[in-house]
Amino acid sequence: MAKYLLLKHYRGGPAPVNDVPMDRWTPEEISAHMQYMHDFATRLEGTGEFVDGQALAPEGTFVRYDGEGRPPVTDGPFAETKDLIAGWMVIDVDSYERALELAGELSAAPGAGGKPLHEWLEVRPFLTAPPTITE
């Protein structure tokens, strides 16, 4: 089994086929989308492939260390950032091909008008071993 992170980009990734921003969806369309996501996760829980997933708020702040005894440096919040991750899901599957299959299915979540989004999802494998350093 291998773990993969499925990233749902609200902004910053390629445009989905059904490219109506979520802030223009009706409450019923948002509910249908959230129900699809819930049902998808529940099904994967049943197969043992679901690890975790969350929707994310649009606000975020960058933070970095600024030296011993100094407060962290912050920059943000960045609600207007070019790249906005709407949420994520971690899956634990037998193969990369299975990860792609599930990501493709998840990309069909309904959007405006109840039509599938066909959104692009980013599939990222978890690092299983530290990278080898060569000189």
Automatic annotation (TrEMBL):
Judging by the UniProt lineage, the source's domain of life is Bacteria
Recorded hits in Pfam families, A to Z, give: YCII
Protein name, entry field: Uncharacterized conserved protein
**SUPFAM superfamilies this protein is in?**
Dimeric alpha+beta barrel
Spell out the PANTHER family in the cross-references: BLL7171 PROTEIN, BLL7171 PROTEIN-RELATED
Q: What is the lineage of its organism?
A: Bacteria, Bacillati, Actinomycetota, Actinomycetes, Micromonosporales
What is stated as this protein's family in its record? Belongs to the YciI family.
Q: Which residues form the YCII-related domain?
A: 15-106
Q: Which InterPro entries match?
A: Dimeric_a/b-barrel (IPR011008), YCII (IPR005545)
